[in-house]
Specification:
Layout lengths: L3 H9 L3 H5 L3 H8 L4 E8 L4 E6 L5 E6 L4 E7 L4 E6 L5 E5 L8 E4 L4 E9 L5 E8 L4 E8 L5 E7 L5 E6 L5 E6 L21 E6 L5 E6 L7 E8 L5 E7 L10 E4 L5 E3 L6 H5 L5 E4 L5 E6 L4 E6 L4 E7 L3 E7 L2 E6 L3 E2 L2 E2 L2 E10 L1
Length: 358
């Protein structure tokens, strides 16, 4: 969030060149914004890009990309955001939202592809990216040096298959990795190759050593719940969104909670919240105080906000093909594949995720 004095300093300094390229309408939208949000899109000509919008969904800036992006991560310390290609893409783009530095395009190494997500270390010096070592069919965390052109400097195991989102836990050292359990290979596009025997788990890894600290697996009849996205609650819990790959009529919830004692359980959703998510969570966000977790579903068509303390839904919005959600000062900003983001509609097809950029 930019306070008034910080905004004036930004406009007077390195950000002036960025603002100079705005249309009057975009400059006005930027000036009224407390937070910017990054998200990817496909336009009407089927070209891909990413955009910065404000909390109303007004377009601040847009840029082309060589392919479809999925998730973003942002580091205040580095002053950089990174957009990751959607599986099975191999590119990522690091960019400075203020345009003080030129964007950097970098790639996963041979034999790897990105899974659409990653996270910076708290000091902003390293980037951890979810990757697939597709010939072996195992997950890797690629480690990139954020101040050296994003050179890849190492890797460690995710201790599972199909890693999706990676987040840094509140201790600033532990990585939580959602191993979705689904094996894929670029030769087969987005085909799921191991549904009969898939196993999904949340794995905690030491970001400094690569050591596995703990693993929490989905067991029993619900082993086809692919864990995908996570947010930490104020009480030490981890809230997880899943995508069920089994019987469409099975009584499962795509919202799970991992408590401080290591108990991983589905959160029962009363109707109509259950129908809104429809066994498939596309994205998750948490309020700044860690008390409200919001889960979206393009399949069900909307999003549901859950009170972390009571584990009960407190709000629900119906909106077709909604996936992107992010916490804002006004509550939640959401986007859909049909062009709506926040309170604004654009001739763009928004992708799955929205990331707040301070």
């Amino acid at each position: 969030m930019l306070r008034p004095l910080e905004r004036r300093a930004f406009l007077a300094g390195a950000g002036a060149a960025f603002i100079a390229g705005f249309s009057p309408r975009s400059a006005d939208a930027f000036d009224r914004s407390e937070t910017l949000f990054a998200t990817a899109f496909m336009d009407e000509s089927k070209a891909y890009g990413f955009a910065l919008v404000n909390q109303e969904g007004e377009l601040i800036y847009r840029e082309t990309m060589p392919g479809r992006a999925h998730g973003f991560t942002w580091s205040k310390q580095a002053g950089l955001a990174v957009a990751f290609a959607r599986r099975p893409g191999t590119f990522a783009i690091a960019f400075d939202p203020s345009h003080r530095e030129a964007p950097v395009l970098f790639h996963a190494p041979e034999g790897r592809h990105f899974y659409g997500h990653g996270v910076f270390s708290r000091d902003g010096k390293k980037l951890y990216a979810a990757e697939n070592a597709f010939e072996a069919g195992v997950g890797k965390v690629g480690i990139y040096e954020a101040r050296d052109g994003f050179a890849r400097i190492g890797e460690f195991e995710t201790f599972g298959v199909g890693p999706h989102e990676i987040i840094m836990m509140p201790d600033d050292r532990t990585l939580a990795i959602a191993n979705g359990g689904i094996r894929t290979h670029p030769d087969f596009g987005r085909a799921k190759l191991n549904l009969a025997e898939m196993r999904s788990a949340i794995v905690f890894v030491d970001s400094r050593t690569g050591a596995k600290l703990a693993a929490f697996e989905v067991n029993g009849e619900d082993h086809r719940m692919s864990l995908r996205h996570m947010v930490p609650g104020f009480d030490g819990s981890l809230w997880i969104g899943g995508q069920y790959q089994g019987d469409a009529l099975a009584p499962v919830s795509p919202v799970l909670r991992l408590d401080g004692n290591g108990d991983l359980q589905q959160v029962d959703l009363p109707e109509p919240a259950g129908a809104t998510l429809s066994d498939y969570v596309g994205a998750v966000t948490i309020s700044p105080d860690g008390r409200l977790a919001t889960f979206s579903s393009p399949k069900g068509g909307g999003y549901v906000t859950i009170d972390v303390a009571t584990q009960m839904p407190i709000a629900q919005v119906t909106a077709p093909r909604t996936s992107g959600v992010a916490a804002s000062t006004a509550g939640v900003i959401a986007s859909s594949e049909h062009g709506r983001i926040g309170k604004t509609i654009h001739p763009l097809h928004w992708d799955n995720h929205i990331t707040a950029i301070g």
